[in-house]
Write a structure and sequence with these properties.
By secondary structure, this protein is an all-alpha fold. Helix content is 74%, strand content 0%. It comes from Thiohalocapsa marina.
Length: 297
């Protein structure tokens, strides 16, 4: 896969990260046990268990937090917020089926729980179940129009559909709620790049980097746009913030090749080969592709 395809995928995954998956019906104790094994009811009330769970979660102890949330759930089995938090823990642990089960249960208990709707939508989008993901995410913004995560994820889905104008509206709606989020500026920039709005894309990436100068994905995306514009020195400088120069030379060459600037591409691949044996094979393979495109093979 071409490195800039990876950039696009990495962007989408960042957009969709933060949640976590298997339909769940009914409200039996069997269902609740399936969320994370059997939890004893204990002697404490739901409120006490919830306090302990929140404290454990804040300290990063997911196992203890999950146990305490389940204790609280035994006392209050239809508590949507509890189910949502349980889903988040399963998602963080990579237990996507259990996460989806918990999110769906939370939504059954409260159909307007915007965070659960958002998390389920994001989870489904990560599984490429885009149609249902969009249904859940749209329900989230109906329930809470200022749900930045939902707008962000809807932006990703719109970019996948190549509806860049709609995507950018969603990113802007998300930024209205979280203007200091570098990821959102990066995502807006990438959508602008896909739409051919290169100057506007650069402005968004630069804003992301003002907020977080170490944001690697924004540096890569900035290098990508500069390469597309033929601003090679700027591109190499941007790529150089996050990768070795031979790799930067190869990547700039690849963008030039895709843009049809074959002589430029060949020159960059040649430099990459000469500067590093590590990148010789990749840059050489790309150089051979240029020769084919130029009709020399």
């Amino acid at each position: 896969m071409h490195p800039f395809t990876l950039i696009a995928f990495a962007t989408a995954l960042l957009l969709l990260s933060g949640c976590a998956t298997a339909p769940m019906d009914g409200g039996s104790s069997t269902d609740r046990s399936a969320l994370a094994g059997t939890a004893s009811k204990g002697k404490d009330g739901a409120a006490t268990a919830l306090t302990r769970a929140d404290a454990a979660l804040a300290s990063g102890n997911l196992d203890k937090a999950l146990f305490e949330y389940l204790q609280a759930l035994n006392k209050d089995p239809d508590n949507a917020e509890l189910l949502y938090k349980i889903g988040n823990i399963h998602d963080a642990r990579g237990d996507t089926q259990l996460a989806e089960a918990a999110y769906r249960k939370a939504i059954a208990a409260d159909p307007r729980h915007a965070s659960a709707l958002t998390s389920l939508g994001i989870l489904l989008a990560r599984q490429r179940q885009y149609v249902e993901a969009e249904v859940q995410l749209r329900a989230a913004v109906r329930a809470e129009p200022r749900q930045a995560r939902a707008h962000n994820a809807l932006g990703v889905l719109a970019d996948i559909d190549r509806d860049y104008a709609r995507a950018q509206r969603h990113y802007e709606d998300a930024l209205a709620q979280a203007p200091g989020a570098p990821m959102l500026h990066n995502n807006l920039g990438y959508s602008r790049y896909l739409a051919g709005r290169h100057a506007a894309a650069i402005a968004a990436f630069e804003r992301a980097l003002e907020l977080n100068p170490d944001y690697q994905l924004a540096w890569r995306n900035l290098g990508l746009v500069y390469s597309r514009q033929g601003r090679y020195d700027d591109a190499l400088q941007a790529f150089g913030k996050v990768q070795a120069r031979p790799q930067a030379l190869n990547d700039v060459g690849y963008v030039a090749m895709v843009a049809g600037r074959l002589d430029d591409a060949e020159a960059f691949f040649d430099q990459a080969q000469r500067q590093s044996a590590e990148y010789y094979a990749l840059a050489n393979a790309n150089a051979q592709r240029v020769k084919v495109l130029k009709g020399e093979h």
